[in-house]
Amino acid sequence: MNIVCLDLEGVLVPEIWIAFSKESGIPELSRTTRDEPDYGKLMNFRIGILKEHGLTLQKIQDTIARIDPLPGAKEFLDSLREKAQVLILSDTFDQFAGPLMKKLGWPTIFCNTLEVAKDGEITGFKMRCEKSKLTTVKALQSIGFETIAAGDSFNDLEMIRASKKGFLFRSTDAIKRDNPDLPAFEEYDEFLEAIEESL
């Protein structure tokens, strides 16, 4: 049985931190996993910037409430879910994901959790498990699933390469250049067709 594992940000919805960077006027917050392969380093950097500027979880959630899925993403996801089980594997957080999942029709998502003080200050983060995307794909395989995986960033490459078929979607030129063997797509129609052919 197949299960399709998709990244969230950049694949189905815009990058949350880029949106918040624009809204807050802090360009440093636009850095993402497309730029920084070390997720722990990236998150500690972000938390430091938030603390420096006195920005709380609520401020980020206010931005997320105004984010819509990428054009065509919900239709793509709906069509894919008619053909296969789909699991969103994301390095985002429970506190961010809810409004976005609602707009996508409540697909299943596995993500992480922020540590938040009573005053709303983000003080840290708790990863669901080490190398969460790769670990989850291997766990699914251990219970009889064949995985097909897709994403756009450095932190997606391990789960993509561990799967029976893997794709890049709207990735960077640098990642595509460094991984020429991975099929890369820019449009949902072609992406959906390629996944369906892998099922």
Task: Explain what you see.
By secondary structure, the protein is of the alpha/beta class. It has a domain at 2-12 and 71-112 and 128-198: Rossmann fold, CATH 3.40.50.1000. It contains 9 helices and 7 strands, in the order βααααβαββαβαβαβα. A 7-stranded mixed sheet has the order 4-3-2-1-5-6-7, with helices on both faces. Strand 2, helix 5 and strand 3 form a beta-alpha-beta unit. The longest helix is centred in the first third of the chain and has 15 residues, at 39-53. It is globular. The mean pLDDT is 96.
What topology does this entry show?
Blueprint: E1 2-6, H1 16-24, H2 39-53, H3 57-64, H4 73-83, E2 85-93, H5 94-103, E3 108-116, E4 122-126, H6 132-142, E5 146-151, H7 157-162, E6 165-169, H8 173-178, E7 184-185, H9 188-198
Parallel strand pairs: 1-2, 1-5, 2-3, 5-6, 6-7
Antiparallel strand pairs: 3-4
Helix pairs in contact: 3-5, 4-9
Uncertain runs are: none
Give the biggest sheet. 7 strands, mixed
Count of alpha/pi helices = 9
Helix content: 40-55%
- Order of strands across the main sheet: 4-3-2-1-5-6-7
- What's the quaternary structure here? single chain
CATH superfamily of the domain at 2-12 and 71-112 and 128-198: HAD superfamily/HAD-like
Strand count: 7
Shape: globular
Structural class: alpha/beta
What's the CATH C level of the domain at 2-12 and 71-112 and 128-198? Alpha Beta
Q: What is the gyration radius calculated from CA atoms?
A: 16 Å
Could you spell the SSE succession in H and E letters?
Answer: EHHHHEHEEHEHEHEH
| Known CATH architecture of the domain at 2-12 and 71-112 and 128-198 | 3-Layer(aba) Sandwich
Strand percentage? 15-25%
Q: Provide the residue-averaged pLDDT.
A: 96
What is CATH's topology name of the domain at 2-12 and 71-112 and 128-198? Rossmann fold
